[in-house]
Design brief:
Shape: globular
Strand order of the largest sheet: 1-2-3-4-5-12-6-11-10-9-8-7
Radius of gyration: 20 Å
Strand content: 35-45%
Structural class: alpha+beta
Order of helices and strands: HEHHEEEHEHEEHEEEHHEEH
CATH class of the largest domain: Alpha Beta
Number of domains: 2
Largest sheet: 12 strands, mixed
Number of helices: 9
């Protein structure tokens, strides 16, 4: 039976006609996530721009006309040192047990472009040695749960972006901010003495109960520290007292504590992200 199954397996890109079956497969593999959770993210993937020549959804293994393993990918473009670069968030992976030995075909299909920077943002601790042997490097070592309203900070006039950005607040990140606002993120533009500073935060819950925010994008981590006080007080007025910040070490100027010491984030490729720079990734497209 196994030999016959192996002979019948075919690897190919996921298409829109596969979405219902892919969502059902993933809901069996991740029992805390119903099929509607996956479909919401897949439909977001269907609607967003993807760099030309790259998969929109990812890859699957097909046997007897049905998907038996899947690897979701989220390709995006970013700017690094004035040039456009391609990144790929390797998102959720699942295989039916009978096909687990062949699921490496999915990874090999993706990790072949040396010009792409690949991100693995939520590896289980026991998989991290394997990821490192695949050539991935850590760029974040856990998170800091901070209370920014307890910090100081320079004066900042804060504008919340709920849809299209006003012309007066035009920024190079316009498309990023508008897209993430549509995904349900809290998108803020701070107006300071030296110009405009964007911040994108995604809603999260601590232990599925306490609301918090995860800093998804800012131009530099120092910007968040610099304006922590006014940003924190703005969030506090809207019922969110804390922010999760990806860190590599302690962050002077922020009040809080380290959490998730083993929740490392990894990259592989020529253009590693900065801390506080993970837009268009699984926590936004698919949700927490």
């Amino acid at each position: 039976m196994v030999t016959d199954a192996r002979r019948a397996v075919k690897r190919r890109q996921i298409t829109e006609s596969d979405l219902e079956a892919v969502a059902a497969l993933l809901s069996r593999g991740f029992r805390m996530r119903p099929a509607r959770y996956w479909l919401r993210g897949l439909h977001r993937q269907a609607a967003r721009a993807v760099p030309e020549g790259y998969p929109r959804f990812g890859y699957l293994l097909e046997s007897e006309g049905r998907p038996v393993a899947v690897l979701l990918t989220i390709f995006s473009e970013a700017e690094n040192a004035g040039r456009r670069v391609v990144r790929c968030n390797l998102s959720s992976w699942y295989s039916e047990p009978a096909f687990a030995g062949q699921a490496a075909l999915l990874v090999s299909a993706v990790l072949r472009d040396k010009d792409v920077t690949y991100l693995n943002l939520s590896p289980a601790p026991h998989t991290q040695p394997i990821i490192e042997r695949q050539g991935f490097h850590r760029f974040s070592r856990g998170q800091m749960l901070c209370l920014p309203w307890l910090s100081g900070g320079e004066p900042l006039r804060i504008h919340r972006i709920r849809g299209r950005m006003p012309a007066a607040l035009d920024l190079p990140e316009r498309a990023l901010i508008e897209a993430h606002a549509a995904y349900g993120c809290l998108c803020l533009v701070g107006e300071a003495a030296d110009g405009l500073h964007p911040f994108v935060l995604a809603p999260r819950r601590i232990k599925r109960l306490l609301p918090t925010m995860h800093l998804i994008y800012c131009r530099d981590p120092s910007d968040f520290v610099r304006f922590a006080g006014p940003l924190g007080r703005h969030l506090l007025r809207h019922g969110c007292p804390s922010v999760l910040v990806d860190v590599d070490d302690a962050v002077p100027g922020l009040v809080g504590c380290r959490v998730g010491h083993h929740q490392n984030k990894y990259y592989r490729g020529p253009n590693p992200p900065r801390l506080g720079e993970i837009p268009y990734t699984e926590g936004v497209i698919y949700g927490p």
